[in-house]
């Protein structure tokens, strides 16, 4: 698993960073420059090993040895990777490192003290250390910093430390390096943003009427945005509830205790479908609109919670053989008498018949309508002269019953509209919006001006 871009993965990196910067500082220090001018410089060896490993080495040995590690008590419970505490695998370990700085030059006490002087001067002047850390699996270096401070240790504490090292006591001091973070594992990737959410419930769990009850109509559509390409598709899914449906298109009724048709002696109460017209009269559309499907493996399978309906293809006209003109209607289910022993009707739910716009390209191809000589043609079903509106985004076009001029449209037939955009409109893409009887079709075409 990848590491989080935080901290270090190896404590020896901190030791090597301090020793490397100390070694770089040595030739530039004022004391070393004065020794250089006097011709009294001496060789100095830098090491991160403990003093007992260097007791037989010649010359002046300057060691910075990691002798103790503790957890930083101030940051051990602090959330560092988000607004709330993290689990242990993704929470970095916060450490304080304690280093023993010592010098040894056998009998040459001056070299020991001069080396210690320069080293302490370095840590005093560079109490905040900045460095770049390269972590496996993390692109690019990570900026890290930690502080270096001299610790006050008693003579007894230092004596016990040197006894543990098993070499004679020598000139030394303790430095604390804080806070060093051990790089944790990278937290798991966040979930992708929700693109589509659907909630499905079983209406039979609720106290619906036993003879059948509707809760609504619905239709799903899919279309591509004008920026969609095969390489970078931008396909949109929309669920319209109440349903927006055009001639020849499928939609669904949802409810409970539907499709009840017997067998005897059970009453037939909800297997027929009725269209309620704006004048409150009704037309039975069961045989012409209802899609009977007894096979559960088929998506349009009829259940007691859903009825599948197809509007007639066109032209629009008198139902049930034809789709009604665009407008807002209602549907209900029930039964007739005779042959049933009694007539039954459920509640009514709305749906909207809209003009159908035919789009001749399939997603992810961008639905950009192309003109011929500056005139655009929209094909479909349900267009009605004097009752149709065409807009380019919010720019309304004027209707011309003969032929469109600039800024006008013509309803050629119930299946075709031609239009021309106005002169002087700004360059860009415009959605083509078609309304009939004040109901608007779902998104379909765009034009590029």
Structural overview:
This protein is mostly beta strands and 449 residues long. It folds into three domains: 11-182, STM4215-like (2-Layer Sandwich), CATH 3.30.2000; 203-354, Immunoglobulin-like (Sandwich); 357-448, Immunoglobulin-like, CATH 2.60.40. 12% of the residues lie in helices and 34% in strands. The chain is built from five helices and 26 strands. The strands form five sheets. A six-stranded mixed sheet has the order 1-2-3-6-5-4. Strands 9, 11, 12, 14, 15 and 16 form a six-stranded mixed sheet that branches. It is elongated, with a radius of gyration of 41 Å.
Rough outline: elongated
How many DSSP H or I helices? 5
Residue-averaged pLDDT: 87
Largest sheet, order of strands side by side? 1-2-3-6-5-4
CATH class of the largest domain reads Alpha Beta
Q: End-to-end span in angstroms? A: 51 Å
Q: pLDDT under 50 segments (min length 5)?
A: none
């Amino acid at each position: 698993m990848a590491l989080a871009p935080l901290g270090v993965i190896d404590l020896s990196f901190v030791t090597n960073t301090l020793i490397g910067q100390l070694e770089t500082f040595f030739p530039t220090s004022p004391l070393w420059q004065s020794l250089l001018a006097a011709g009294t410089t001496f060789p100095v060896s830098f090491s991160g090993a403990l003093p007992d490993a260097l007791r037989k080495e010649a010359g002046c040995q300057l060691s910075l040895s990691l002798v103790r590690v503790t957890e930083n008590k101030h940051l051990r419970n602090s959330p560092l990777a988000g607004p709330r505490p993290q689990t242990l695998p993704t929470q970095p370990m916060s450490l304080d490192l304690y280093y023993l700085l010592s010098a040894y030059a056998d009998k040459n006490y001056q070299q020991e003290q001069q080396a210690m002087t320069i080293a302490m001067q370095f840590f005093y002047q560079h109490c905040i250390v900045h460095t770049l850390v390269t972590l496996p699996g993390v692109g690019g270096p990570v900026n890290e910093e930690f502080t270096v401070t001299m610790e006050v240790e008693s003579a007894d504490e230092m004596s016990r430390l040197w006894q543990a090292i098993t070499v004679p006591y020598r000139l030394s001091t303790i430095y604390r390096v804080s806070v060093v973070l051990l790089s944790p594992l990278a937290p798991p990737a966040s979930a992708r943003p929700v693109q589509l959410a659907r909630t499905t419930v079983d209406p039979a769990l609720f106290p619906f009427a036993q003879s059948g009850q509707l809760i609504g109509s619905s239709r799903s559509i899919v279309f591509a945005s004008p920026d969609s390409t095969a390489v970078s598709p931008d396909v949109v899914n929309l669920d319209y509830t109440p349903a927006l449906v055009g001639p020849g298109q499928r939609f669904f009724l949802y409810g409970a205790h539907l499709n009840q048709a017997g067998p005897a002696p059970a009453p037939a109460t909800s297997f027929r479908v009725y269209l309620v017209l704006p004048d409150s009269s009704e037309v039975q559309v069961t045989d012409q609109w209802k899609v009977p499907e007894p096979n559960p493996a088929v998506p349009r399978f009829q259940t007691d919670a859903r009825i599948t309906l197809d509007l007639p293809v066109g032209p629009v006209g008198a139902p049930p053989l034809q789709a009604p003109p665009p407008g807002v209607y209602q549907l209900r289910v029930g039964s007739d008498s005779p042959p049933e022993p009694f007539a039954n009707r459920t509640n009514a739910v709305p749906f909207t018949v809209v003009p159908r716009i035919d789009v001749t390209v399939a997603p992810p191809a961008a639905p950009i309508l192309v003109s011929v000589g500056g005139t655009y043609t929209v094909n479909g079903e349900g267009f009605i002269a004097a009752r149709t509106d065409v807009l380019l985004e919010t720019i309304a076009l004027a209707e011309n019953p003969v032929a469109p001029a600039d800024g006008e449209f013509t309803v050629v037939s119930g299946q075709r509209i031609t239009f021309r955009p106005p002169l002087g409109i700004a360059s860009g893409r415009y959605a083509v919006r078609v309304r009939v009887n004040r109901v608007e079709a779902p998104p379909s075409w765009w034009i590029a001006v």
